[in-house]
Specification:
The protein has 85 residues and is an all-alpha fold. It has a domain of 43 residues. 28% of the residues lie in helices and 0% in strands. It is flat.
């Protein structure tokens, strides 16, 4: 326990133990090429989640967003249709 961050010892590269790394290839049994996808999982839901957040923010207007990407002009059209203009 430290009294403040002034007294806190910040770890340096000398304090970190040596790390051994290795690379192992394991082909996927689910396709003929054995390839796997990686890295895109966090990007896939961003568009739909953003559209859902906008739809939720406009819930008083009964706006229903069924397509992405969502341009400002398209959002304007959806709001106008929802309020009956």
């Amino acid at each position: 326990m430290n009294a403040s961050f002034m007294d806190y010892l910040i770890p340096t590269a000398l304090d970190v133990p040596k790390i051994e790394t290795d690379h192992i290839t394991t082909p996927s049994p689910l396709n003929p090429l054995g390839v796997k996808g990686a890295g895109e999982a966090g990007a896939i839901p961003v568009g739909p989640l953003f559209a859902q957040a906008v739809e939720d923010a406009l819930s008083d207007s009964k706006v229903e967003i069924l397509e992405i990407p969502l341009k400002p002009s398209r959002l304007w059209e959806l709001v106008r249709q929802a309020v009956g203009e």
